[in-house]
Amino acid sequence: MLRKRIVEIIESAVEKASAQGDIVSSWKKPLTGFADAADPLFTELKTAVRPSHGLPGDLLPGARTVIAYFLPFDPAIPRSNHRGNFSSEAWAVAYIETNRLIAGINDQIAGLLEQKGFRGTRLPATHNFDEEQLMSDWSHKHVAYIAGIGSFGHHHMLITDKGCCGRLGSVVTDAVISPTPKSNRERCLFKFDGSCRQCEKRCPAQALGVDPFRRHACYDRLLENARLHERYGLADVCGKCAAIVPCSFTDPVRSASRKKTENR
After folding, report:
1. Which of 3-17, 57-71, 80-94, 122-136 has the lowest average pLDDT?
2. 33 burial class (0-12, 13-18, 19+ CB within 10 angstroms)?
């Protein structure tokens, strides 16, 4: 029952925000996943991300479950960001408004948990990273991967069944909630069969490629966009690698497999 109520809170918050007159952005139906806080993959993040990456118990002593969710942007937002070298106004505003939405969702989830006698964290959607190494001690996308929401693309973003254009949030709780089944299914076309690489071609900072991710080149472009859109708030974004590529709105590997089956 608690699991169902959490999903309802997330979906209802997104629906209300999309219909709210003073909010410019809109979103599609979100995806929600749950992970056992004792899952050994959390320990592996100390190698995959950085040695200081937190464990669920570091954020909340006695942690039992990690809740992760993905809020997909309405397709009009990525489409607005397709052209040019700098992020569109709609993409920048969506980033800011979605961060606020995530903060509100986390407050609601934590409030529900407290009503039921449990505890829950209120984690920010972003700006919780080391500005020198440009890595976070709590990576929402890696947490979402463990919760079964998606897999990583060539662009280092999480590709879900609803694509990669959107924002991720997470909550750690001491409530026991059954985990989401994991899928080892590949969603990135480049990783699947060596094709695509459109994200790499789309990157204006030339940060992607077969060599290690040029993290600082990417971040420099984010800061340029932040200055461009500073009148809206802090929008250190880009999104060009995600805007109108095969994985923008869907899992392209599954879509390609379906087409092959239909054409037989």
Report:
1. 122-136
2. buried
What is the Cα Rg of the chain in Å? 18
Number of neighbours of residue 107 by Cβ within 10 angstroms:
14
Handedness of CA 231, 237, 241, 244 (dihedral sign): negative
CA nearest to 155, candidates 102, 191, 106, 192: 191
First vs last C-alpha separation in the chain: 43
The phi-psi region of residue 88 (left if phi > 0; otherwise alpha if psi is between -120 and 50; otherwise beta) is beta
What pLDDT digit, counting tens, does each position of 149-188 carry? 999 999 999 999 999 999 999 999 999 999 999 888 999 9
Tell me if 190 sits within 8 A of 197, measured CB to CB: yes
Please report, for the chain, the start and end positions of each structural domain, with discontinuous segments joined by +.
Answer: 2-257
Of the candidates 92, 136, 57, 74, the residue with the CA atom closest to the CA atom of residue 231: 92
What pLDDT score was predicted for residue 136?
A: 79
State the pTM of this model: 0.94
- Which has the closest alpha carbon to 35: 27, 45, 26? 45
E-strand ranges in 116-211 read: 129-130, 135-136, 150-152, 158-160, 166-173
Nearest to 189 by CA among 127, 252, 258: 252
- Residues 93 and 24: their CA atoms lie apart, in Å, by 8
